[in-house]
Amino acid sequence: MPSVFLKHPFMSQRAVAECDDDAMVGAMLAFELALAEVQEASGAVPAGVSQQMRQQLERAKVNVAEVAEGISSGGNVAIPFVKQSRALLADENKRYWHQGATSQDVVDSALMLLLKPRLAALDDLLLRCRSAAVAIMDTHIDTPMVGRTLMQQALPITFGVKVAHWAIGLEQARRRLSAVKLPVQFGGAVGVHSGWDKLGLEWMDALAERLGLAGPVLPWHTDRYPIHALGTAFDAVAGAAEKIALDVSLLTQTEVGEVAEPSAPGMGESSSMPHKRNPVRSALIRGAARQVHGHTNVLINAAAQPLERGLGEWHAEWSPLIESALLVEGALEQLAVLLEGLEVNPVNMQRNLAATGGGIMAEPVARLLTPILGADKAKAVSAAAAETSRLESRPYSDVLADHPDVKGVVGAEDLRNACNPALYLGSSSAQVLRAKEWLKSS
User: Fold this and answer.
1) 128 is a catalytic site residue
2) Is residue 163 within 8 Å of 338, Cβ to Cβ?
3) Is the dihedral of CA 216, 222, 228, 231 positive or negative?
4) Domain that holds residue 371
């Protein structure tokens, strides 16, 4: 598969480089060496053996191609890795390699080790996006724009409150992701540390501490809550990022023109239409998010696994889990740049507010007229005036002022105020301030 062309563009390139085959081998090696060290500390491995193992394996090099070739016969990467790495050890040390462990212990723990720096990178990116969003909120706390429902103009809001909702979505996802634990896996053949009695749990806890992972209550071979929690947390971040990309892409449409993605040489160019400036960052974010949603479906459907070892369900988790992390990181890299350089056009926002000739203000006008005309007639008059304004391209307030049920009944200033979008923004500004306080509370 041409991954460089079809998969990697949606991912963080740094993350791709740091999660390659050699990194997986390094993570598996870290698990096995840590296991030997904690076993040596308890007397189950002779003194000095774990250090000898480390020296012997650091001098040698695991053959990644041979490990990959051996997966087809064993069903997972740990089996050929353990076999090859054991062969590199001195004969007197071979018996202590992988002692008390099973292949799932190696693979699950290695995946957690690979993901640990990815979670830190994701948190940094989310904080960067949060800072960029807050800056936009501050600048545009009172900038009126059209609020749209069902893709149609509805009532005025501010651009600041729109961005506040973006920021809240990202921060909720960040807090959820930061609460996810990456537990070590160590249970042995059937998850009960067969042959080692209570030492097994002691080793599990010591392994977690040595590797910087969370200590689980019990081994989790077929209790896939940690994977379910991680996968759905990735999906939450992807969804929050995708929401922003979708809004931005809609607002960048030529006929709308309220925002634009940051410009850069060649960014957004078309292969055939020189005039175009496509929202490419939004497209990459949404493309990554859609893939994450698909991966999440795989992880969710693999949550119930049979007996003491998954048969295909466990195996199905590996690629979607890692790819989700790389895709989310790639999406957030794009989103951070997008938010930091987002071009906002208040003039076009004002233009679009006036696109209906003021008919967007029919609801507040109806409220103004209700005490005088009654609810049903007030709604009918405001709607009819809005339609006339649209058909005749006349200002809504002028049409209303000439309406026989309004003329001479409502003061001109009251009518102008009711038709002014900037005076009908509800709690927009207050919501921005409230959002900022909540964002600072983390």
Assistant:
1) no
2) no
3) positive
4) 359-418
DSSP letter, residue 92: G
Helix ranges, 88-219 (H): 103-139, 159-178, 199-211
Active site residue 389: no
Count of helices and strands (H, E) across the chain: 18, 4
Dist CA 400 CA 404 (whole Å): 9
Q: Which of 14, 309, 367, 390 is catalytic?
A: 309
Q: Is residue 107 classed as helix, strand or coil in its secondary structure?
A: helix
Q: What is the CATH number of the domain that holds 366?
A: 1.10.40.30
Strand, coil or helix: 222: coil
**What is this structure's pTM?**
0.93
Number of domains forming the structure of the chain: 2
Q: Which two tokens stand for residue 353?
A: 């507010």
User: Is the sign of the CA dihedral 107, 222, 190, 34 positive or negative?
Assistant: positive
Asked if residues 33 and 142 have their Cβ atoms less than 8 Å apart, the reply is no
The alpha carbon of residue 416 and the mean position of all alpha carbons in its chain are separated, in whole angstroms, by 44
Of the candidates 182, 219, 5, the one whose C-alpha atom is nearest the C-alpha of residue 101 is: 219
In the DSSP assignment, the letter for residue 183 is B
**Residue 411 within any structural domain of the chain:** yes
Write out the DSSP string of 378-431: HHHHHHHHHHHHHHHT--HHHHHHHSTTTTTTS-HHHHHHHT-GGG--TTHHHH
Residues 235 and 370 in one domain: no
Cβ–Cβ < 8 Å for 111, 318: yes
| Cα gap 139→7, rounded to integer Å | 37
CA 31 to chain centre: 28
Residue-wise pLDDT tens digits, 224-251: 999 999 999 999 999 999 999 999 999 9
C-alpha span between 26 and 161 (Å, rounded)? 46
Indicate the residue among 350, 382, 405 that finishes a domain: 350
Q: Say whether both 392 and 260 belong to one domain.
A: no
Q: How confident is the model at residue 221 (pLDDT cuts 50, 70, 90)?
A: very high
| Rg of the Cα atoms in the chain | 30
Cβ neighbours of residue 186 closer than 8 Å, sequence gap 6 or more: 35, 101, 105, 109, 193, 200, 203, 204, 207, 219
Residue 202: both structure tokens together: 């002691």
198 three-class SS: coil
- Angstrom distance (rounded) from CA 248 to CA 289: 15
Q: Which residues touch 107 (CB under 8 Å, ≥6 apart)?
A: 28, 76, 77, 78, 185, 318
Per the residue annotation, which of 42, 270, 319, 427 is the catalytic one? Answer: 270
Mean pLDDT of 191-205: 97
